[in-house]
Amino acid sequence: MDCGLYIITDEVLAPGCSHIQIAKESLSGGAKIVQLRDKRRSGAELFAIANVIRSLCTENSAKFIVNDRLDIALATCADGVHLGQDDLPLSAARALAPRPFIIGVSVGTVEEAVIAEKGGADYLGVGPVYPTGTKADAGPAVGTALVSSIREKTTVPIVAIGGINLSNAKDVLAAGADSIAVISAVICSPDIAAASRKFVRLINPQD
Amino acid sequence: MDCGLYIITDEVLAPGCSHIQIAKESLSGGAKIVQLRDKRRSGAELFAIANVIRSLCTENSAKFIVNDRLDIALATCADGVHLGQDDLPLSAARALAPRPFIIGVSVGTVEEAVIAEKGGADYLGVGPVYPTGTKADAGPAVGTALVSSIREKTTVPIVAIGGINLSNAKDVLAAGADSIAVISAVICSPDIAAASRKFVRLINPQD
Ligand code: NI
């Protein structure tokens, strides 16, 4: 998996900004992975939006991931699905979607990380690293120490998430994160593409 | 598809009664199809519940259908999925789940019914036949006349739904419905199995 900037589209956190607009602008700013996350819209709406973002990602050589809904992911030929601890179990998802289909799993402890890797996760979403007001069910911040601990016990890519901004991103990468997932910090910016570019420079300084 | 009693489990409409309990009791009363419908629970919870109902249906030679979530249906080896007009489009679902996997589609007009049949629906959910307080997004009652009109223009089984009770069920069957889907009328009964049996006798008088 490409270890670039990972953008999570969330319309709730970016009022007036659509999933498609967030995807388009962040891709033009160099995002390498776009995750469509929406717990409110109907399957028909998600399907239509996912098809557009699928094309945008293909044009930009980026990966497209759907949050939670494996059916929408498969129906739109997404590259993968992202599963929380309360979504469809990893083993069940993997049985329906063999590799190279990507399955990412949110983990909040070393134990969950080890179980997810053994269960066939292709990357681990670790967080929330810092306190965040963006996800009600995200739990307390785990800090960069958890990123380091998980890095010691697992080998799959770590996508760090939660409260990461341009000031603290270096610490997160230094702790062992391969990628940084950004919701509010980038998305709520008036210039999503420019904000994305700044993160991309931090994650891939050689680019 | 067996044209017996079609039960939709809905915990919201039967407070204190779980999906599993509704399924178990209605199956013992002779239900031939059980649809798990739940818009609130997490994927992990739905998966666990669906696995249990899957087994119950197998033991009772009944079909198991999942509402909306094709991923949960496929992951639990359900017999099929039921799609509303605002769920994953039929064509996309059919591409992921070839026959004999059952796909049912809710239709509210003759045109929707013809499109669904052409698109590969295995049965049509027609309704709401009578006014119902059980589904906020169900739209105005369509009456038995729509069942008749759809019967004239299509050949796949019709499962009539919405406000059907022991008094009006005969009219619905006479209008051309092959099966009757029951939510509140059966589920809110203190004896789900006994109530199911009464509907079964109406639908299959020869049994
Ligand atoms: Ni969901």
UniProtKB/TrEMBL annotation, chains A, B:
Binding sites annotated in the UniProt record for Mg(2+): D68, D87
EC class: transferase
Residues reported in the UniProt entry to bind 2-[(2R,5Z)-2-carboxy-4-methylthiazol-5(2H)-ylidene]ethyl phosphate: T132, G133, T134, G163, I183, S184
Cellular-component GO terms for this entry: cytoplasm
Residues binding 4-amino-2-methyl-5-(diphosphooxymethyl)pyrimidine, per UniProt: Q35, L36, R37, D38, K39, N67, S106, K135
GO molecular function: magnesium ion binding; thiamine-phosphate diphosphorylase activity
UniProt pathway: Cofactor biosynthesis; thiamine diphosphate biosynthesis; thiamine phosphate from 4-amino-2-methyl-5-diphosphomethylpyrimidine and 4-methyl-5-(2-phosphoethyl)-thiazole: step 1/1
CDD domains: TMP_TenI
Required cofactor(s): Mg(2+)
Boundaries of every Thiamine phosphate synthase/TenI domain copy: 5-186
Record Pfam families: TMP-TENI
GO annotation, biological process: thiamine biosynthetic process; thiamine diphosphate biosynthetic process
Catalysed reactions, semicolon-separated: 2-[(2R,5Z)-2-carboxy-4-methylthiazol-5(2H)-ylidene]ethyl phosphate + 4-amino-2-methyl-5-(diphosphooxymethyl)pyrimidine + 2 H(+) = thiamine phosphate + CO2 + diphosphate; 4-methyl-5-(2-phosphooxyethyl)-thiazole + 4-amino-2-methyl-5-(diphosphooxymethyl)pyrimidine + H(+) = thiamine phosphate + diphosphate; 2-(2-carboxy-4-methylthiazol-5-yl)ethyl phosphate + 4-amino-2-methyl-5-(diphosphooxymethyl)pyrimidine + 2 H(+) = thiamine phosphate + CO2 + diphosphate
UniProt cofactor note: Binds 1 Mg(2+) ion per subunit.
EC nos: 2.5.1.3
Record keyword Metal-binding present: yes
UniProt entry keywords in alphabetical sequence: Magnesium, Metal-binding, Thiamine biosynthesis, Transferase
Chain's role: Condenses 4-methyl-5-(beta-hydroxyethyl)thiazole monophosphate (THZ-P) and 2-methyl-4-amino-5-hydroxymethyl pyrimidine pyrophosphate (HMP-PP) to form thiamine monophosphate (TMP).
Family: Belongs to the thiamine-phosphate synthase family.
Protein name (Swiss-Prot/TrEMBL): Thiamine-phosphate synthase
Gene: thiE
